[in-house]
Amino acid sequence: MPLQQHERTPPYFFNLLIGVGAYTLLPFLLLSAYTHPTADDFSFALRDTTLGFFKSQVEYYLHWSGRYFGTAVVRLNPLTIPSLQLYKFYTFICLLAVCFSTWALINTLLNQHLRKKNTLAISALLLSLYLLLTPSPAEGFYFFATYATYQFSNIMTLLLLAILYLLFHTDIKFKKLFYTGIACILIIAIVGSNEMSLIMVFMTCLLLLVANRNNHIHRSYLLFLFMICTISCLVAVLAPGNYDRMNDHPNASRFIWSTVYAGFLSLLTFYRWLAPVLIASVIYMLLIGLPVANKTKNSQLFSIDLRLAVLYFLGTIFLMYFTFAWSTGERATPRVENVICFFFVFGWFYLLQVALHTHSHRLQHERLLSPIIPAVAMLLFLLNLLAVENNISTAYVDLVSGKAAAYDEALKRRYAAMAASDCQECTVDPLPAIPKSIYFMDILEGPENNDFWVNRGFADYWGKDAVHLSAPNPPITDNLSTLRKSSKNSLREKSMME
């Protein structure tokens, strides 16, 4: 079928996707007003106010981790000022930065082929999918020590891909050198953020190098960037601190077990995330993918051998799981899986576009161009977004039930009590509610937990000998239970007023 059929796609599909993106993002932005420091935020703030920058960098590189950029960037911790409002503002900016970097990449890649509304719509689709699937929103967006280490690298990766595209689509030597310099800085920072991002960027640089091995114009730039990436990886991987830390994991360094376990977890990844991704893929393919495939037949961006692209996608996911399993002997934690989920979503849609670029001529069938199919897919996608127990619904429930507000007020009272009290072994009240979207961990109850690392960090930050809760925190409840309880409380308050 001719391309004009695709271009007659009703505009309300794109408007709906933009609306879906706004609906998905809104509660996460609002929750930033209720987030609070937790766990490592306190101990890192104390470290960074007592140790100088270079001393802490050397100490951690030699005895804890090769994440040279991750160690450096957490010094931006607002608790070093201290400023609770800045902590909340950081979260808000982090969310906006994820949105902007996603749009910047999509717009850079496709602005010559799609209208602005369409690039905004596909950005909204990808963001909605990522927020829906991300294993731990709390660690991804609200806990500074983790999002500074893991989410910042995701943002930089998107910007790096946009810069690389610009590098290979300019004939002006000065611009090529400028973009190469920016790409080098981003690669060094991303590699030094965390091991998952290291693998993601290394594999991406390797893919570009292999795919452009016969391209004499770009090959020298790619070789240079790959060399910078390799050196950065060696600096991060060979840090003595990595091996000191592995001594804390007795099941680490088991190659065969790690290989089998990583293979199993890679398969499990598809089981966990593939269904909503497939639904979103139908929407993307019919509204965006096929038109782009027709308009970019000669584009090097999507001309990569499909087999190579599949190997890159599957190999990167496997290596991410393998690296964590080999270095710790354990399953990847939610904060680590946030990065894997990020790669899964964005890597999948690139792979899909490569497949469409290769085989779009086989899909030009009139029935595929009917608005009925994308409408059904859109309905199924909306049902996924509106499911009562997913990340998005949980964010809304945490807001409307009052959980987030109660959590915020309780912690403000706790800080005031700690600042005003002259106690040295202090007992504080438990939280009244746990908003799952923004909660990671709290101090534990009872003096027997005074040496628990979260209790210890909180006590040291406030200059106390010990701190513990007077009673356990309430459990995290599911959304249906929260809504029922909230409804009963509202009815009780209404009857009392009458």
TrEMBL record:
What InterPro entries does the annotation carry? DUF6056
Q: Which domain of life does the UniProt lineage start with? A: Bacteria
Question: Which Pfam families does the entry mention?
Answer: DUF6056
Asked if the Swiss-Prot or TrEMBL record annotates the protein with the keyword Cytoplasm, the reply is no
Write out the transmembrane intervals: 12-34, 87-106, 118-135, 141-168, 177-209, 221-243, 306-324, 336-356, 368-387
Q: Which UniProt keywords apply?
A: Membrane, Transmembrane, Transmembrane helix
The UniProt annotation puts the region (Disordered) at 478-498
- Descriptive protein name: Uncharacterized protein
List the source organism.
Pontibacter virosus
